[in-house]
Design brief:
single chain; 5-stranded parallel β-sheet; elongated; 6 domains; Archaeosine Trna-guanine Transglycosylase, Chain: A, domain 4; alpha/beta; 24 helices
């Protein structure tokens, strides 16, 4: 309890507080000294207390509960500091209810509860507040709280500006009285009001009021900023709405109605014509309904609009009329391609079935061959001969299943897959779609695109192909799919089962000469602005060009070299003052002048027969190649050493060939002791190039037989094929490819 002093707040005018007072517990309100509060009473104990009071005479003690609202039984259930108040008025509100109007007098301390029934009576002691009104701290607190409250009344409409004048007039009545008056004006939480009641020292109470006012100012400032932004946003939206409504009226007046609703209505009229089932139509109708309810400024509007634009932009009804004149197809392919008779025959058979049945049927055609053999151009020729639109899809590097099936519309940046996008580009529902580089499909973390293609290429499933972006089925059954690949090994077995493989072997040297003269040169002359037949390549020059500057199964590099020649001739015609002859004949000696030093050195077979040297032939994805096999022996114990960076298959071929030669030593006139007393070294030159495959057995056996028997091998004969332990030659594959090797006997 504060110490006594000769100077107290309200000194002589302090009311006389009895030692015992009826106690009324406050639950939802707080009364400050000099304040007024109307208390509504309904519980029995408090009603008995109110009935015992006389107006304008009796006092009561008002104490806040400290136990969360339970009925007080002990003094600890109430806060120790409260307010002694005089009852000014009693008013009956109805049966069992009273309202008493109380005027706060002064703070009192509850020492103990002496009576609990019929109502609470407690012993109290007045609290006299020790103050020093002249203290600089007190004056500073008075001025700062008054200034803060004045600022609060400007931004918070709950506070009346007139209360500032009331506070200013009472600033000299003492800091305690001023603090209680200011606290009674504040709309603050109940806990903060109870803390102010418990702050007995006026200086402490003023400091606490300063903190509360600062918080209220900060909160109101934030609310004011938010309110200003909300009002500005609402004003902007109201203005935009008003302008849009004006624009809508103007557009309706001019007959230029546009916007999401009009767009949705236009799409809705087209839904019935879509060749899809009723469930899918309802899906599209729902999407149209969503678009109609959107604003053009909504973030979802472009997504929804693009979706419907994609759906109705697909060629559901547009189709080209097939022109299946087989003679025309034959002429067109023969005019543009050379050396593909077997492939052309199979294509004509395929189109014959399509013509008789009136629809696409059978497996998917897959053109397999080395680069530059004309797979893509052949597919274009088929599309042109049939009169269909042609679209090429490059599948090289595709490793995400969504690139085939599309992304779900709910994802950010969603778009349809490559298949549906191809129909958008084609503008017809029955195009020829080329699945280029099918063997280059990857497999990443987001599914297997090869598995996604199974549905696309299956005639029984692609009638109802559902792209994830569209969400509705699209018929792919009228499309002619043609695939291309360099090798089949990289294509998964389930996908390979849906393909009919048509192989395009590498071109031989004779075929390359025909292609260069008949197809390439006329096209290149026109492309470079030269007159037809203005350049003539002699046969020797063309052979030198093919052998010295290209090494491929196709003709892509050959075309590049011939294009280089055309550019150089065009440059000379455009810059030289002396005109060139109308027909410029290019001979063998001029090839190196135009193209520089030859890039490839010819692999000639030995110019004379040698012992332990044989020539083999092999084929790769880039064409045929010459394979030399050398063998030598030295004194030893019958060990065999093999070099040349060989794979397991070729090493087994060497061992098989060696076993066959030893087992037939008598027939080959090989001395019996020679294999046991000698070591053998078999070498395949060009050791930096990996070599493997079942095609070297015959050449290795011939080389070893020559070494052990001492008889030379003919230098003008090359061999390919595998040999068994019994001397049988297995079936030889890639015959045409090996013809394109650079083997030229001396």
């Amino acid at each position: 309890m504060p110490e006594s002093s000769s100077q107290y707040q309200n000194g002589d005018s302090a009311p006389v507080i009895p030692e015992q007072l009826p106690i009324y517990p406050l639950v939802t309100t707080v009364l400050f000294p000099s304040g007024v509060a109307a208390l509504q009473i309904a519980d029995e104990r408090s009603l008995r207390l109110a009935e015992s009071l006389e107006e304008e005479r009796d006092m009561i003690g008002l104490f806040c509960l400290s136990n969360g609202g339970a009925t007080p039984r002990r003094s600890t259930d109430l806060q120790s500091v409260g307010v002694a108040a005089r009852v000014v008025q009693k008013l009956r509100l109805g049966e069992g209810r009273l309202q008493i109007l109380c005027h706060g007098l002064a703070r009192v301390e509850l020492e103990r509860l002496e009576v609990t029934e019929p109502f609470l009576i407690g012993r109290v002691r007045p609290i006299r507040e020790k103050i020093d009104e002249t203290s600089p701290e007190v004056r500073s607190l008075l001025e700062s709280t008054l200034s803060s409250y004045k600022s609060l009344t400007r931004i918070d409409k709950r506070y009346s500006p007139e209360t500032v004048d009331v506070l200013r007039l009472n600033a000299d009545s003492g800091p305690g009285f001023y603090a209680d008056l200011l606290a009674s004006f504040l709309n603050i939480p109940l806990d903060e009001k109870r803390a102010l009641i418990n702050a007995v020292a006026p200086v402490k109470r003023l400091a606490l009021l300063g903190e509360i006012l600062d918080r209220e100012l900060a909160r109101n400032q934030v609310e004011a900023d938010i309110d200003q932004k909300v009002r500005a946003s609402l004003e902007e939206k109201r203005r935009d709405h008003f302008l849009r409504e004006q624009l809508k009226v103007i557009q309706e007046t001019l007959g230029e109605t546009t916007g999401p609703k009009r767009e949705a209505e236009q799409y809705a009229t087209m839904i019935e014509d879509l060749p899809i089932d009723s469930d899918s139509k309802r899906t599209v109708e729902r999407e149209c309904g969503r678009l109609a309810l959107m604003s053009e400024q909504a973030a979802e509007y472009p997504v929804q609009s693009n979706y419907l634009e994609t759906v109705f932009g697909l060629p559901w009804w547009e189709r080209t009329r097939d022109s299946l004149n087989l003679k025309k197809v034959d002429r067109l392919i023969s005019r543009r391609h050379h050396g593909v008779e077997e492939v052309k025959r199979r294509l004509l058979e395929y189109l014959s079935v399509v013509k008789l049945k009136g629809k696409i049927s059978g497996p998917i055609l897959c053109l397999v061959g080395p680069p530059g053999t004309g797979k893509t151009s052949l597919a274009k020729s088929i599309a042109e001969a049939m009169g269909r639109k042609f679209v090429s899809l490059s599948l090289g590097g595709v490793s995400d299943e969504s690139e085939i099936r599309g992304h779900r519309k709910t994802y950010v940046g969603a778009m349809p897959g490559k298949i549906i996008s191809a129909y958008e580009r084609a503008g017809a529902c029955n195009p020829v779609i080329l699945l280029d580089e099918l063997d280059k499909l990857g497999q990443g973390l987001h599914g297997d695109p090869a598995a996604a293609l199974l549905e696309v290429l299956d005639p029984e499933q692609n009638r109802t192909f559902v792209d994830r972006y569209l969400g509705v089925p699209f018929d792919l059954s009228e499309t002619l799919f043609i695939a291309t690949a360099n090798v089949l090994d990289n294509i998964s077995q389930p996908l390979r089962d849906r393909l009919e493989v048509l192989r395009l072997a590498g071109y031989t040297e004779a075929e390359k000469q025909v292609i260069a003269r008949k197809f390439m040169l006329p096209r290149l002359l026109e492309a470079h602005g030269l007159e037809a037949k203005s350049i003539k390549l002699t046969e020797s020059a063309l052979v030198r060009l093919i052998r010295g500057y290209t090494s491929e199964a196709g003709v892509r590099n050959l075309e590049r070299c011939m294009a280089t020649i055309c550019r150089k001739v065009a440059f000379r015609r455009a810059t030289e003052k002396q005109a060139l002859p109308e027909v410029l004949q290019i001979r063998r000696a001029q090839i190196e002048e135009l193209l520089g030093t030859a890039l490839f050195e010819q692999e000639f077979a030995a110019r004379q027969a040698e012992v332990g040297l044989a020539t083999g032939l092999a084929w790769t994805g880039a064409g045929g190649a010459v394979l030399f096999i050398e063998a030598t022996r030295m004194t030893g114990t019958g060990q065999v050493k093999i070099t040349g960076q060989l794979g397991d298959v070729m090493r087994e071929s060497v061992e098989t060939a060696f076993s066959y030669v030893r087992s037939h030593g008598f027939e080959l006139e090989i001395p019996d002791e020679l294999p046991r007393t000698s070591d053998f070294h078999i070498h395949f030159p060009a050791g930096s190039i990996p070599k493997d495959g079942p095609s070297a057995g015959v050449a290795v056996a011939t080389c070893l037989a020559s070494l052990l028997s001492g008889r030379p091998v003919r230098h003008d004969v090359a061999m390919t094929g595998e040999i068994t332990l019994r001397g049988k030659i297995l079936s030889v594959g890639g015959v045409k490819e090996t013809e394109s090797s650079r083997f030229q006997p001396a």
